[in-house]
Amino acid sequence: MEGLTIRKATANDVERIAEIIAGEPGAEAVAIAGCVEAARELGMALVRLPGSPQGWERSTVAELDGRVVGVVQAGEDLSFRITPRLLGLVIRTFGVGLISIWPRYKARQRVDPEAPAGSWYVGELDVDPEYQNRGIGRALLDHAEQEARWYGLKKMSLQTTTINPARRLYERHGFRVVETRTDSSYERYTGIAGRHLMVKELS
Predict the structure, then answer these.
(1) What are the DSSP E strand ranges found in 25-182?
(2) What fold, for 4-201?
């Protein structure tokens, strides 16, 4: 796309990255958090939190005419670990409401396929809704693939919900579903059957 630049994020991009990733939380995030406001607050705080698995330091951005319009977070280890900082953030966000969130969080874990060892894992791929369907997501995936090849990795992986229309983008990019996990409690909470693990073999 003419005028599109792909670059590593800087501290100046934090709020824009938070807005793109969490400004309009998806159905899954809203269901787990309990409401749109809590999902947005937690999602944006995760981007700002130093060392977070969804932190801006792990982000690569797509910039068009000086405006950040898309974000990808990819790497070998984007695992979500509970750290003291992260736990404190969750407690501040939900307070005593954390008790009601626990069963929803556990249901989410049950539909969480494990990424293949040694794969370049795409943990986040988000494009500002105003700029979707312009090839920005594809450009970010291409960049992530270049990184994977630079590190000598032989495969890429990602997860997506069973209802995510972005699955078509991933399939056009060479990813295929290798595992699907469903859970009745997760579906009751979210209205989504489960999640797919998708893998792309790099020749």
Answers:
(1) 59-64, 67-75, 120-127, 155-161, 176-182
(2) Aminopeptidase (3.40.630)
